[in-house]
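Usage

Read records sequentially. Each one opens with the input sequence:
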Amino acid sequence: MAGWSRWWLLVLFSLVTSSGFANTTVVMNKAFAELTEERDYNYQLLKRALAITADDYTEVALTRYPLPMTQTRLIHELTSGKKVQVGVLASGYWQQPGVIAIPVPVRRGLLGWRLLVTHEQTLQRLPDLAENTEALSSLTTGFGADWVELPLMRDTFAHVETVEQTSDLYQQLLDGNFDVFSRSVIELWLELENLGSSADKLAVVPGVVLRYPFADFFYVPGDQPELAKRIELGLQRLYANGDYEALFMSFYGAVIARAELNNRRIIELKNIPLAPVNEIAEQWWYRP
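and closes with the structure output:
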């Protein structure tokens, strides 16, 4: 605890101000306590975006808040801008008062590429969704009670069982409480590995992938528009010189290959007002 206090005092000492962007240190959130800087894609991307714009603005030190935050807490901290100046959140917060969203999908919209998971026994009776995509509407599913895509799932499936935790989704699927549920290609494989032997009873539905315009973005405090401009400029430069794509593939190329998206029929789900996607250039969205 003493180490954390010293860290926070140093950060407070290095933060210069309140409006505009005059900080010599930028603090961002981290998703998991055990996530190292080397394995933190969001951190690595932001670090590069700030570095490539240093001549236009000033050099800054990027660090991460030492403890993970809930989305509600992160929005609160971003609004004040005192403890965290950059956060990564899904597009459902795009129009949140007090924050500015940078209109560049951090992970190229991979959160919207969703594979269907089912119980191995259920798989035998599922319709061939690759041949009959409309059969999706006859299936039941599970979804997070406070996840912003919930209305879309209710519009897509016959019934949606809501849960509080992701782990509950897997347990209810194992118990046979619904037919399938969707997870992004980023999330799925690690979650299955964490299930241990229980994962042997589950299967990924072959031949199809759901896709809808859903992504996560960098957000900054509403009184720091210059920081928002700087991050967007940095991301644009990284895209232009190829570093954005190279970093993206170094982190996610393996899971994309494992998902075999090129061999799956894409079922586009479009009735979802999650973000003003017309403001986001097509180049930023991942396509197989």
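Summary fields computed downstream for this record:
- Confidence is low (pLDDT under 50) at residues 4-20.
- The chain is about 35% helix and 20% strand.
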